[in-house]
């Protein structure tokens, strides 16, 4: 949409929680992220990483400041448009891997693509199967997600985030439940997406090696960015 | 961009319904019970209502045309009440009750489109005598075929045959109460005496039981010419014309029209049976109130159970929103689920209502009622279907809409 090299720009983001009492979780957060960048976000537990990531991914619209994504101002956008943006341009991996429990792994991965309607069902099936295969899950493709292990579920969630070739992939500890082998698989995938396909990755992590190997580290403390 | 339409919304709805079959069925059962009770109770009350109206119209026409037997008035009446009338007719007499030229009136009435039945009548007070015992009552001179068509006399006959009246000039169809009092049975003879002193020996051709004691103890039907003879009148003498119309509820509206048409007084069934009509009205209002309450309770029950099924899917709603489903998609998915549950529930509800009505309708209560007067009214089945669909629609729409307006994250945080 926009030719600028900046994919995501945050200006003066602040957020309050009102329960149990009013307190400011995020204070004056500003940064730009470039296309094709692999950014990791680190910080102590409770520093506000997840909260920030939810704002960036348009899933929480209750904040102050402005967000711009792919040349579009997100802050004043209608909910329906935000849903479209999430579907087409953002892949999100939750800290707690939220999958639809009544559907198979395949279906969970396919649903965002079926919603988007860019490809035929056969093409989508093919792609979903390949993505699951890449993450070592081809055997689990037809299993209901409620019957998968935590790590398997997390990988399905990653596959789902990748299915629509989003401009940006946001992960809230996307490798938190994975062994070192699978972590390095996911890392390599992210690395490849950013370097070869100019997609952008923003991942929260507690894994120092993972963070160090990324292009840039954003460190948070008490709701602020310190580096 | 959007090259394919994958109908993923309905796919999700179906998966939700089929992967939790038990839950779906329980929710549908909630609808079933609501719908069945709604239809059953309405049929029950309406059946009762129809039965009581029918019993009222066993002997009362929707409208009665008659000559008011007003007393004669002063020849000269002063408009000024301060003045005294010097001339007045000293003897107050009853004017004739006779309707003039009834044949043409009957013809005119029969041509009215709303009229379903017209029959002339000569009613008079009589004594029924058997030996020394006598009972006072009213003999109604009728053209039996017309009378039967309008009042379905046939169905109240407990002994004998109604058609024998037309074959036997001096026949009489008598209320069972009279026969019992005079110790008479079918084919016995009875003397009928009018106030004018005419005596006639008549033969009982049939016995009648309407279930209304006041009627059964006084009323008899005789042939029109015999009634005229009892009143010492010519064959053109008619006291009343009975009129039935398509919708008895509208009787009042036709009073002035028939007054105008015939030039005589017209009385509708409500005026003629003020007490019964009031009771009827009260029953109707009560039925309406009960019907409304049942509707409310049923709607609430259906709404609740569907609402619950959707609330259990709140997490799914948040996930769907997170991966790009819009509020409109969410509403579509859950309204679809609610409507499908609703349709399943409604189908079973109709079947259950039908079974309940038939069970109830086969219960014998006896008396002049017979079986319990419930019946299948297609109207209520129709209303039940519409009611069920409307409620299930909103039961899906309202909670889905609420969830659809939330940010996905605020659902997860709940
Ligand atoms: N819904 C909420 N209501 C009130 N406070 C909240 C809510 N969610 C989070 N918080 C608080 O906001 C702060 C930031 O939480 P957040 O989940 O963003 O931390 P985090 O950096 O992701 O931590 P972790 O690494 O443990 O996931 C914490 O102090 C947390 O207690
Ligand atoms: Mg977190």
Unreliable residue runs of chain B: none
End-to-end Cα distance of chain B: 35 Å
Strand fraction of chain A: 25-35%
Alpha carbon gyration radius of chain B: 33 Å
| Structural class by secondary-structure content of chain B | alpha+beta
Number of domains of chain B: 2
Radius of gyration of chain A: 17 Å
Structural class of chain A: alpha/beta
Major interchain interface with per-chain residue totals: A-B, 34 and 33 residues
Distance between the termini of chain A: 29 Å
Oligomer: heterodimer
Question: How many helices of chain A?
Answer: 7
Helix/strand order of chain B, N-terminal first: HHEHEEHEHEHEEHEHEHEHHHHEEHH
Envelope shape of chain A: globular
CATH H-tier superfamily of chain A:
P-loop containing nucleotide triphosphate hydrolases
Shape of chain B: elongated
Report on the structure:
Chain A is α/β, with parallel strands linked by helices and 227 residues long. Chain A has helices spanning 49-56, 79-89, 105-116, 121-134, 150-162, 180-197, 208-212, and strands spanning 6-17, 23-34, 38-43, 64-69, 72-73, 90-93, 168-172, 200-204, 216-221, 224-225. Chain A is 36% helix and 26% strand. Chain A has a six-stranded mixed beta sheet, sandwiched between helices. A four-stranded antiparallel beta sheet of chain A has the order 2-1-4-5, with helices on one face. In chain A, strand 9 (216-221) and strand 10 form a beta hairpin. In chain A, helix 3 (105-116) crosses helix 4. The model of chain A has no long low-confidence stretch (mean pLDDT 93). Chain B is of the alpha+beta class. Chain B has helices at residues 8-19, 21-56, 102-110, 144-151, 164-167, 176-181, 213-216, 224-230, 251-262, 269-272, 274-311, 314-322, 327-361, 378-405, 408-412, and strands at 63-66, 115-130, 133-142, 157-160, 171-175, 189-194, 199-208, 219-223, 240-245, 265-268, 364-366, 370-371. In chain B, the strands form two sheets. Chain B has a six-stranded mixed beta barrel with strand order 2-3-8-5-7-6. Chain B has a two-stranded antiparallel ribbon with strand order 11-12. In chain B, helix 2 (21-56) packs across helix 13 (327-361) and helix 13 runs antiparallel to helix 14 (378-405). Chain B is elongated and about 100 Å long. The chains are: A alpha/beta (227), B alpha+beta (414). Chain A binds chain B through residues 54, 57, 59-62, 79-80, 83-88, 92, 94, 98-103, 107, 111-112, 114-121, 160, and chain B through 1-6, 8, 11-12, 15-16, 19-20, 315-316, 318-329, 405, 407-410, 412. Magnesium ion binds at residues 49-50, 95, 172 of chain A.
């Amino acid at each position: 949409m926009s030719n600028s090299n900046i994919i995501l720009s945050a200006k003066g983001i602040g957020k309050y929680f009102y329960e149990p009492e009013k307190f400011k979780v995020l204070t004056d957060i500003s940064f730009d992220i470039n296309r094709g960048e692999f950014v990791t976000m680190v910080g102590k537990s409770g520093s506000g990483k997840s909260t920030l990531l939810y704002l960036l991914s348009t899933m929480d619209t209750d904040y102050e400041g402005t967000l711009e994504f792919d040349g579009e101002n997100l802050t004043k956008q209608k909910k329906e448009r935000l849903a479209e943006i999430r579907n087409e341009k953002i892949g999100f991996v939750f800290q707690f891997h939220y999958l639809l429990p009544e559907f198979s792994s395949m279906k969970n991965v396919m649903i965002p693509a079926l919603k988007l309607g860019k490809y035929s069902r056969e093409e989508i099936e093919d792609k979903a199967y390949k993505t699951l295969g890449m993450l070592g899950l081809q055997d689990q493709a037809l299993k209901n997600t409620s019957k998968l292990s935590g790590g398997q579920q997390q990988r399905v969630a990653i596959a789902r985030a990748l299915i629509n070739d989003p401009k940006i992939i946001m992960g809230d500890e996307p490798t938190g439940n994975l062994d070192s082998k699978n972590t390095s698989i996911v890392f390599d995938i992210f690395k490849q997406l950013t370097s070869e396909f100019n997609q952008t990755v923003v991942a929260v992590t507690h894994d120092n090696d993972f963070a160090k190997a990324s292009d840039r580290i954003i460190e948070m403390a008490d709701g602020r960015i310190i580096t | 961009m959007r090259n394919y339409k994958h109908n993923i919304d309905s796919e999700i709805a179906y998966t939700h319904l089929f992967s939790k079959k038990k839950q779906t069925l329980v929710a549908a059962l909630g609808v079933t019970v609501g719908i069945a009770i709604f239809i059953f109770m309405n049929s029950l009350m309406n059946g009762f209502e129809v039965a009581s109206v029918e019993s009222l119209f066993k002997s009362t026409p929707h409208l009665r045309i008659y000559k008011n037997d007003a007393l004669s008035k002063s020849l000269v009446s002063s408009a000024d009440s301060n003045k005294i009338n010097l001339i007045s007719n000293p003897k107050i007499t009853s004017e004739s009750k006779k309707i003039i030229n009834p044949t043409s009136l009957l013809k005119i009435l029969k041509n009215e489109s709303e009229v379903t039945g017209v029959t002339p009548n000569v009613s008079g007070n009589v004594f029924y005598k058997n030996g020394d015992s006598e009972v006072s009552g009213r003999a109604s001179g009728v053209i039996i075929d017309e009378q039967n068509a309008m009042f379905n006399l046939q169905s109240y006959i407990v002994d004998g045959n109604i058609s024998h009246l037309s074959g036997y000039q001096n026949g009489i169809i008598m209320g069972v109460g009279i026969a019992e009092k005079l110790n008479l049975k079918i084919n016995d003879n009875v003397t009928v005496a009018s106030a004018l002193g005419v005596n006639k020996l008549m033969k009982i051709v049939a016995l009648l039981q309407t279930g209304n004691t006041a009627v059964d103890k006084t009323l008899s039907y005789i042939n029109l010419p015999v009634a005229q003879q009892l009143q010492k009148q010519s064959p053109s003498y008619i006291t009343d014309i009975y009129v039935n119309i398509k919708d008895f509820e509208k009787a009042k509206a036709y009073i002035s029209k028939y007054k105008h048409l015939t030039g005589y007084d017209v009385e509708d069934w409500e005026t003629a049976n003020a007490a019964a009509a009031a009771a009827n009205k009260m029953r109707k209002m009560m039925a309406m109130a009960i019907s409304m309450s049942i509707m409310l309770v049923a709607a609430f029950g259906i709404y609740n159970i569907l609402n619950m099924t959707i609330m259990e899917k709140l997490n799914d709603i948040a996930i769907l929103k997170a991966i790009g489903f819009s509020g409109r998609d969410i509403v579509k998915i859950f309204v679809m689920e609610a409507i499908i549950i609703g349709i399943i529930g409604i189908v079973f509800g109709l079947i259950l209502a039908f079974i309940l009505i038939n069970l109830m309708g086969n219960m014998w209560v006896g008396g002049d009622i017979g079986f319990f007067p419930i019946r299948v009214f297609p109207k209520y089945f129709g209303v039940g279907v519409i009611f069920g669909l409307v409620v299930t629609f909103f039961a899906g729409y309202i909670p889905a809409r609420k969830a659809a307006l939330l940010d996905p994250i605020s659902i997860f945080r709940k």
